[in-house]
């Protein structure tokens, strides 16, 4: 009595479902990454070949038309020059060990940058001047 199996087990593996899943994930990540807009002020930074990678929790921006912006944890707020010291005091009390990244447009007068740095020093805040990578 010869019994034969009617269903044969195939050892082959079909990759078509796996490629469909990878393709759908690729589309999903491409669409969601374009929806994310960074909270940043457009400032043309001076170029330098020395880059520091210190993590800053706050940033301060000066635009070419002398508008001042403070960015704390992704929340950008425009402030007046008279309110800079109060903003720096808030940063110092809420984040005492943080660095403040200073983004100053390269076309502004350095007198404005020095004023902001002196206010930060008066409030014992550590400040980093942000620069763009130097092109060769």
Describe the structure.
This protein is of the alpha/beta class. It has a domain at 47-133: Nucleotidyltransferase, domain 5. Helix content is 32%, strand content 23%. It has three helices and seven strands; from the N terminus they run H-E-E-E-E-H-E-H-E-E. It has helices at 16-35, 84-94, 110-122; strands spanning 47-48, 56-62, 68-72, 75-79, 99-104, 126-129, 132-133. The strands form two sheets. It has a five-stranded mixed beta sheet, with helices on one face. Strands 1-7 form a two-stranded parallel ribbon. Strand 3 (68-72) and strand 4 (75-79) form a beta hairpin. The chain is elongated, with a radius of gyration of 27 Å.
What is this entry, summarized?
The protein is α/β, with parallel strands linked by helices and 136 residues long. Helices cover 32% and strands 23% of the residues.
Tally of helical segments: 3
Strand order of the largest sheet: 4-3-2-5-6
Number of β-strand runs:
7
Would you list the SSEs in sequence order as H and E?
A: HEEEEHEHEE
Under the CATH scheme, which class of the domain at 47-133? Alpha Beta
How big is the Rg?
27 Å
Q: What gross morphology would you assign?
A: elongated
Taken as a percent bin, the fraction of beta residues is 15-25%
Structural class category: alpha/beta
């Amino acid at each position: 009595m010869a019994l034969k199996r009617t269903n044969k087990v195939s050892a082959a593996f079909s990759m078509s479902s796996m490629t469909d899943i990878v393709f759908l994930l690729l589309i999903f990540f491409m669409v969601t990454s374009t929806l994310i807009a960074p909270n940043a002020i457009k400032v043309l930074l001076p170029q330098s070949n020395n880059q520091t990678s210190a993590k800053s929790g706050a940033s301060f921006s000066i635009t070419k038309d002398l508008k001042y912006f403070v960015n704390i944890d992704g929340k950008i707020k425009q402030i007046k020059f008279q309110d800079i010291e109060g903003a720096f005091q808030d940063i110092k009390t809420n984040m005492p060990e943080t660095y403040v990244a200073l983004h100053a447009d390269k076309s502004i007068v350095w007198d404005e940058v020095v004023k902001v740095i002196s206010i930060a020093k008066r409030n014992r805040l550590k400040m980093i001047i942000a620069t763009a990578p130097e092109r060769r």
